[in-house]
């Protein structure tokens, strides 16, 4: 599938105040033509989410730049208190594919990719617990 093997360029068109992001990509850049969209799989939620997330992951720097531009007082409400669920996708007459997502997806990908690997959990007992603290 050309979508997986290619690295199509995207262009972020809009970022709303509530964190919705609209980005576009050419249909031919995805390896698709208008006739392909008559196949139900290519307009299914699973396919749209797969392609949308693939594009975000391949262009994570662009989305990181968006996140970096959100001021601290707004960041929590716009990014951390919201959660991306599904992509929206439309195709216009000129063969431009429009994807809509929530910017919280980019934050989740960044955390997934760059968070430090946690050390394996070990069983330990806190030395601050005294034997006198039991309820009797």
Write the layout of secondary structure elements.
Layout lengths: L1 H4 L5 E5 L4 E7 L18 H14 L1 H9 L3 H9 L7 E4 L4 E7 L1 H11 L22
Antiparallel strand pairs: 1-2, 2-4, 3-4
Can you tell me about this structure?
This protein is an alpha+beta fold and 136 residues long. It has one domain. Helix content is 35%, strand content 17%. It has five helices and four strands, in the order H-E-E-H-H-H-E-E-H. The protein has a four-stranded antiparallel beta sheet. Helix 3 packs across helix 5 (104-114). The chain starts with a helix and ends in a 22-residue tail after the last helix. 17% of the residues are buried.
Mean pLDDT: 83
Q: How many strands?
A: 4
Count of the domains: 1
Quick one: biggest sheet? 4 strands, antiparallel
State the end-to-end distance: 67 Å
Query: Poorly predicted ranges (pLDDT <50, ≥5 residues)?
Result: 118-136
> What is the helix/strand order?
HEEHHHEEH
Radius of gyration, CA atoms, in whole angstroms: 21 Å
Quaternary: single chain
Beta-strand residue fraction: 15-25%
- Shape descriptor reads elongated
Percent range of helical residues: 25-40%
> Would you tell me the structural class of the helices and strands?
alpha+beta
């Amino acid at each position: 599938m050309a979508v997986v093997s290619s690295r199509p360029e995207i262009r972020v068109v809009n970022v709303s105040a509530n964190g919705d992001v609209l980005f576009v990509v050419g249909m031919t850049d995805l390896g698709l033509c208008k006739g392909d969209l008559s196949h139900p799989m290519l307009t299914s939620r699973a396919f749209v989410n797969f392609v949308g997330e693939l594009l975000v992951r391949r262009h994570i720097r662009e989305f990181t730049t968006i996140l970096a531009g959100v001021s601290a007082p707004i960041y929590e409400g716009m990014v951390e208190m919201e959660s991306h669920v599904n992509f929206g996708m439309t195709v216009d007459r000129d063969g431009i594919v429009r994807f809509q997502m929530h910017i919280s997806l980019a934050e989740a990908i960044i955390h997934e990719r760059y968070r430090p690997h946690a050390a394996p959990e070990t069983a330990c007992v806190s030395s601050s617990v005294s034997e006198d603290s039991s309820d009797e």
